[in-house]
Design brief:
This protein is an alpha+beta fold. It contains four helices and seven strands, in the order H-H-E-E-E-E-H-E-E-E-H. It is globular and about 40 Å long.
């Protein structure tokens, strides 16, 4: 599994010094193993994705119940998963569909300090970000996960 994660991040293209530094931090963390919340509740890996409608140039955001924040959909990597497996699972769980085509190359990585309203132990996320092209017609949003959802213009959403 370590090889899969390492290869995935090594292939990630960077163009700035900040991105190179971030990539090195990711690779260092990957070398430590224990990628999942079950294995390491304090810092672990996640996958997020921007559902993007190329015709309207909007992204889909969700008001997440546990975090209390507006976010892109996504979640924690589970034991035995590679990031692409998590992406497919999270799309199905949170938005209720499986895209016909899926870009399997991430567009961004981030390391994010985490603060939850409900006292979770998680303090740091190593997140891998994807874009999922969709018009949203097939969405069956998980209402247990989110207060509400909406489409926002790409320029407003910052993507």
């Amino acid at each position: 599994m370590l090889k899969g994660y390492k290869q995935f991040i090594e292939e990630f293209s960077v163009s700035t010094e900040e991105e190179r530094s971030l990539k090195e931090e990711f690779l260092t963390r990957i070398g430590q193993g224990r990628f999942t919340r079950e294995e390491n509740p304090v810092d672990h890996f996640g996958v997020f994705f921007w559902p993007y409608n190329p015709k309207t140039q909007e992204v889909f955001i969700v008001h997440h119940k546990k975090s209390g924040k507006w976010l892109a959909p996504g979640g924690h990597i589970e034991v035995g998963e590679l990031p692409i497996d998590t992406l497919k699972r999270e799309i199905k769980e949170e938005l209720g569909f499986s895209p016909k085509q899926l870009e399997e190359t991430p567009f961004m990585i981030s390391i994010t300090p985490v603060t939850y309203l409900y006292g979770y132990r998680c303090k740091l996320h190593y997140d891998i970000w994807f874009v999922v092209a969709t018009d949203g017609r097939e969405f069956k949003v998980d209402i247990e996960e989110f207060h509400t959802t909406r489409w926002v213009l790409e320029t407003v959403g910052g993507v």
